[in-house]
């Protein structure tokens, strides 16, 4: 096994076989990110509060209440021998690097040695965290909009591309820390040559490309989680006219520097039982994770990396499905495709909107026990338009004309008119307007910083605000704003904050006078005066944290470490900006939360000469002893990618 590092600390790991290279991946992740990986493994074990204090209690409580320790045992037992052998090689490489350098991992070395169980536990936890994101607070504390995940993806067929070859843009944007952080690397051994990224702690790539085919993921709205409202009396609940008893296990969670905490793991016939943020007792049933679990998903990523075409890629996925995510793909034959991954529940009653409310827990008609096979999920290969895209919206808008929802199982995705931010409109309208698409033009789309929402509402908003004496300064700022999220676009932060205050009304379309046909941009403000009043709140908030009304994103956020920081660039998907950079107001100003992570523009060629330019925005290293690395922030801030 040989590891070579480029100037960005992106490793190329070459080995004799698959076990040789996965050993190298473990070694490379330890050298670059040992503490980060050990931290997520400690959380996945459910023992982090005992090691690192009260800040980790919520994570251990989540583990205990969902019974993830026992579920990890089931997932581990379900792994095939070759999968386990590869994972073991990864762990051996990680442990070897840490043994060679006792400084790697710092205060997290208590986790060593890592084992295959840690890798499987982390895989399960990633899926559990992604599938329990609960913006409505039905069962779990709702996280602020800026704490959730996003992503974009585009593929252009050889027929539509100006180069005559397929183009693919992979563009996840997740939180820049913790279990959502990526590591970029290339692995090569006879029979497999793959470049891509993996979430930290996973032993092979989750997305990327080989010479023949590549794919990216975006988070999809697959309704995996069902929430049931229960009538509890002590340890009993009502179900189908009967009094049933909860299964209860008591967990004692040790907390460093504090008293132990007792957490009850409770289960009804539906699944784990929790107390929701509003005090309601609920049960959750989670397809693909806790119920009918997709235990082969990690192996599925490996098998997909061996595909030679989009068609084969999708077939391999269906054999070992992922519990969620869209897949946007292209290949060297010029083909493209989009696939709605997952195995959502088969619901005999209701529709998609029932996944967004609490179901009556006493009525057995709502309790599902089957999931849809992966091969029945929506997909499109080589549409007439010559392009596919996704910005986290419904699969029906993968291309144009939209797919017909009637062709697939009901209740698996929202309707085409339930688009909850403006990125899909920006993306689709640009693609539909193009003739032959060049790689440069596609990259410009990805780095677009135009705030489409401003084009829809700003004129009416300013007209309504102009009659308010205390909003004259706001009107002056937003009238002069260039409607972009460039680092020096003065006024963007004010408009973004106004949009954030209206995010619920944007999502449910009540902000707009006309919602338009499915897939089209809404028009106007339903209540301009009320919208203008929200500007007053935005103004007060900005001034309250010492931020000028004409602030640009570059004034309130920086990238990199002092003294080499640069001004931030990019904006929010809520306002339609495709170059993702999300900030959140805090007591002392704005903090950066998430945004573009890995951006890769892949140009496929039938002769095996496939190439890609990429950028991993925050870089590949967090360990002080890691190989030297140039900062990638300036590359991304300049709307560029690294050229190999």
Report on this model:
- This protein is an alpha+beta fold and 644 residues long.
- Helix content is 30%, strand content 23%.
- It has 17 helices and 29 strands.
- The strands form six sheets. It has a nine-stranded mixed sheet, with helices on one face. Strands 3, 4, 21, 26, 27, 28 and 29 form a seven-stranded antiparallel sheet that branches. The chain has a six-stranded mixed sheet with strand order 13-14-15-16-9-19, with helices on one face.
- Strand 28 and strand 29 form a beta hairpin.
- Helix 4 (68-78) crosses helix 6.
- It is globular and about 70 Å long.
- The two termini are 22 Å apart.
- The mean pLDDT is 95.
Write the layout of secondary structure elements.
Elements lengths: L1 E4 L5 E4 L3 H28 L2 H5 L4 H10 L1 H11 L2 H20 L15 H16 L18 E7 L10 E9 L6 E8 L2 E8 L7 E3 L3 E6 L6 E5 L2 E2 L2 E4 L2 E4 L1 E7 L7 E7 L4 E4 L5 E6 L10 H8 L5 H10 L6 E6 L4 E5 L17 E3 L18 E3 L5 E4 L32 H11 L5 H8 L5 H14 L6 H9 L11 H10 L1 H5 L4 E3 L8 E3 L2 H17 L8 H4 L1 E2 L6 E2 L13 E6 L2 E8 L1 E6 L7 E6 L16 H5 L7
